[in-house]
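Lab notebook, bench 4. Still working through the backlog of constructs that have no structural model yet. Next entry is a single chain of 269 residues. Request: give me the structure tokens for it.
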Amino acid sequence: MKSRSFKLSLSITDLPLNVSVESMFRLASDLKLDGVEIYPGLKTFPHISLLLKFIKKYKIPVLTIHYPIWITQIVISFNSAFKLARELDSSIVIHPLSENLNSHKQAKFFKTISALAQKNKINIFLENLPKRSTLPIYKYFSKTDSSLNNLRQLNTYAKKYNFGLVFDTAHYQCDSPYLDIDFLNVFKDIKNIHLSDFTLSKQHLNLGEGVLNFKGLLNFLIKNRYQGIVTLEYSPRLFEKSKSYQEAVKTGIGVIRFFSKHALRTSVT
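Model written out:
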């Protein structure tokens, strides 16, 4: 019997540009993951037919759909994203606007998303954002309000609009989040954890390449019977050799499984 209670997923995006979406579905199947998170882009177009083909071929469900940042929203509209989620029986992960959480624009955006979610019977997960992304090119346009990385404030609005929370470890930039009072305060409302390592200047690194105490975090998740999704997110690289990228994913999934399995037997700090 596995000791972990959460589902294990892999983020699949247009990046790296030279790594195919199908190869990532194949890898997720080989690793016997519970599902994947899809970031709709040019590689997944036409979204419904292509993804249904991969789901059927590799027997891997799409657990979540990450609605694209504004640069890539020309590829898929809000209505199309909700249609895709309905077809795939998936939840949707959204980034808030870059505005302050108390702004009129933010309220209008949340109301629009909430109405679409109710109409389509789709669960929405709201993700915390860093002050600035480290994504190639996008990082020059990505400055956001500090309230978007304040877990308590974000959770207040998530509850208001009936959204769940996505906790992104690299965005939060806390080496031991399970000791952080704000994380502990919102933990019961977290539905998806985007797991990757980080430094002060880089996000979404392979586990072990940064300062995140992922062993302690996994130990906390197991002890507290976290029942959401843990999504390995190694996507923001423009180019990387397919073999080395897949090996990094395999290693990351192996690390998660190993420390999840041994969490209750070993003191991890």
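Notes after review: The mean pLDDT is 90. The first helix runs from residue 21 to 30. Flag for follow-up if needed.
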